[in-house]
Amino acid sequence: MGQPTVLVAEDEPKIAQLLVDYLVQSGYRAVVVADGARVLAAVTIEQPDVLLLDIMLPGRDGLEILRELRRRSTLPVIMLTARVEEIDRLLGLELGSDDYICKPFSPREVVARVRALLRRSTSAATTHPFEVDDAAQRIRVAGRPMPLTHTEYRLMHALVSHPGRVYSRDQLLDLMHDDLRDVTDRVVDSHIRNLRRKLDDLLPGQQVIHAVYGAGYRFEILEP
Question: What is the pLDDT along the chain (224 residues), one digit of tens a residue?
Fold first, then answer.
């Protein structure tokens, strides 16, 4: 096996070079693309294992790139952003970003996130009984349809699509509801209880939605 490749889509030369230096020192092959209009072509040519994607790119916006990428690929993506507004975070999550890193950041943290994401994606590549049908908004477990409300589907879709990722209650609320004025994070716990009950009917005795103390919830199928 060759070195894992990280495609760095970043137009600030100093930041891009810093990331390349740390990635290479950590055993990765790193390729930089500075123009948003060239990112998708670079993905096709370089076949990276992870994409570090800056939201603010010349030529084409990072979220627009992510939207098109997700139509054809499940390539792990970490968004790099100096824009911390909730709408950007929400949009990135809905489009299928795997992680966020806000500027300014430590390059060591970026390398650690890349390593963790590669580990999760490798683990997720193993066969598991969950099948997501985006077009029909259905989820099957071991071939059997899981009865879900629209809100439960949005919640379950986010969890199943990113095994091992910890979602905070606030992030899950953003994904579940468009209008948050009268919604509290207790609603998340209620939906999680319902999902666990439905999952227990399909996978008796096997817990796949795990509470992470002080952080939120993650989806993970643990080895028996």
Answer: 468 999 999 999 999 999 999 999 999 999 999 999 999 999 999 989 999 999 889 999 888 898 888 777 778 899 888 876 655 555 555 666 778 888 888 999 999 999 988 887 665 555 578 888 877 888 999 889 999 998 898 889 888 887 777 888 887 887 776 554 455 668 889 999 999 999 999 988 888 999 988 788 888 886 55
Report all structural domains of the chain as residue ranges with CATH numbers, in order of start: 5-124 (3.40.50.2300), 130-219 (1.10.10.10)
Q: pTM of the full predicted structure?
A: 0.59
Tokens of 185: 């994070």
The beta strands (E) that lie in the chain are given as 5-9, 29-33, 50-54, 77-81, 99-102, 130-133, 138-141, 144-145, 166-167, 209-212, 216-219
Cα distance between residue 130 and residue 163, in whole Å: 11
Instruction: Transcribe 68-129 into DSSP letters.
Output: HHTTT----EEEEES---HHHHHHHHHHT--EEEESS--HHHHHHHHHHHHHHHHHHTS--S
**DSSP state at residue 217:** E
